[in-house]
Amino acid sequence: MAESLSARQASKKTMAIILAGGRGSRLHQMTDTRAKPAVYFGGKFRIIDFALSNCINSGIRKIGVVTQYKSHSLLRHLQAGWSFLRNQFNEFLDLLPAQQRIDEVHWYRGTADAVYQNIDIIKDHRPQYILILAGDHVYKMDYAKIVLDHLQHGGPLTVACVPIPKEQASSYGIMTVNDDGLITSFDEKPKNPRTMPNNDKMCLASMGIYVFDAKFLYDVLYEDEQTEDSSHDFGMDIIPRLVSQGKAHAHDFSISCVCNRAKNQIYWRDVGTVDSFWAANMDLASVTPDLDIYDQDWPIWTYQMQLPSAKYVQDLNGASTILRNSVIAAGVIISGSSICSSVLFYNVRVHSFTFINEVVAFPDCVIHRGCRITRVILDRGCELPRNLVVGENKEEDERRFYRSEGGVTLITRRMLADLRKKEPWLFENFEEYCHYNN
Predict the structure, then answer these.
(1) Could you tell me if residue 1 is inside a domain?
(2) In angstroms, rounded to a whole number, what is the distance separating the alpha carbons of residues 167 and 162?
(3) 189 annotated among ligand-binding-site residues
């Protein structure tokens, strides 16, 4: 009977739990004031919008979002942009912050514990299948297809997987799979990862996407709670244990990926480092991005402020703006400057005689006259003084700001405040706009 379910029926019997409580420490100061899923991405979105949009587009409208670390901006975004689901139609977005529901000692101790501590809420909705998702990855996926694949395998657990380069594998759960799709081994963040058959340069990684039979998951979580030496984490404890019992099947991401039709290749990014985050944004500014955010058949939903269109005006000498291969959001005003391969979020101001190349500027940034900035991420509300140069002198950038291994410079408001104390002459005749938030 289960095999005859349509995608629509399977989706209606599924509840999604999005794990959005992590800090994302590898993003450094970008997550000092917000959780990683709340980090801005692509000129308009937050990272969590991709998992949420995949749910909506897949027909899954029973969603719980588990939060913990510095969740205020994330909760504000969810309340403002994702309140359109209707409870009277059995649609909802439940916000599940850490509340010590099980006892008054423990906050969320791991990903599995985060689900366990909300198990009474989940049971109240009576789902037949539970889809566990990470809230900090960028991709487009039809979750209905992984649920149907789960039903076809007939096992209690399905894990989505994707090939990744071997040099990246130590940051993921790495698995091997037999010809029947059964996962035969699973190693969380191994130092010496096993490669794929016939390809010693690639490994098969878990995407942090799991489909469980609901009743089976409840039993597994109760058992894990009673295990003294458990870290109460899906990747570290539960998935390896179920793999050893022969209860976990793999789902090939290529089956359910919503690809860019111009390229027809899978796209999944863990934008967990400064370099990978910057590179994923730069891809969107390219001529034909790997990730198609313009696909109206699979839209990415988000909260939008009501803002005027972007505007480009002449500089003080009457010269026009030069704009190449860039993403420019609403409310941006650019005055006679050169913008190349960059992503500017809403309400960014760029003053005259400025050169910007391969830059990601979060909302409400102000770049004053005469700046030259290359390979830079500007956190929200940054205001650069006149004639500041970044990206041309490695030693100077490292002394003033954070510079990644890949040569990307991250600038935050706090860094600029420290720079103002150390090098006050940079801020002479400084015109402060003072409009920023998280």
Answers:
(1) no
(2) 15
(3) yes
Place of tokens 């830059």: 359
Q: Are the beta carbons of 284 and 292 closer than 8 angstroms?
A: no
108 is in an annotated binding site: yes
Cβ atoms 125, 60 nearer than 8 A: no
- CATH assignment at residue 372: 2.160.10.10
Query: Whole-model pTM?
Result: 0.93
> Do residues 333 and 317 touch, judged by C-beta distance below 8 A?
no
Instruction: Examine the domain organization and report whether 338 and 278 are in the same domain.
Output: no
123 assigned to a ligand binding site: no
206 is in an annotated binding site: yes
* 3-state helix/strand/coil string of 300-314: CCCCCCCCCCCEEEC
Report the distance separating Cα 24 and Cα 272, nearest Å. Answer: 6
Contact 347, 332 (CB under 8 A): yes
Label the pairing between strands 202-213 and 129-134. antiparallel
Torsion of CA 352, 355, 360, 366, to 10 degrees: -30
137 and 177 housed in the same domain: yes
Q: Which of 301, 368, 260 is nearest to 82 (CA)?
A: 301
- Tens-digit pLDDT profile for residues 178-199: 999 999 999 999 999 999 998 9
Strand locations in 189-252, DSSP E? 202-213, 248-252
CB 68 within 8 A of CB 21: yes
Containing domain of residue 208, as a range? 7-285
Residues 100, 438: Cα–Cα separation, whole Å: 26
3-class DSSP assignment, residue 344: strand
Write the pLDDT tens digit of every residue in 269-299.
Answer: 999 899 999 999 999 999 999 999 999 999 9
| 99: CB partners within 8 A, 6+ apart | 117
Contacts of 234 (CB under 8 A, 6+ apart): 110, 111, 112, 132, 208, 210
Confirm whether residue 331 is marked as ligand binding: no
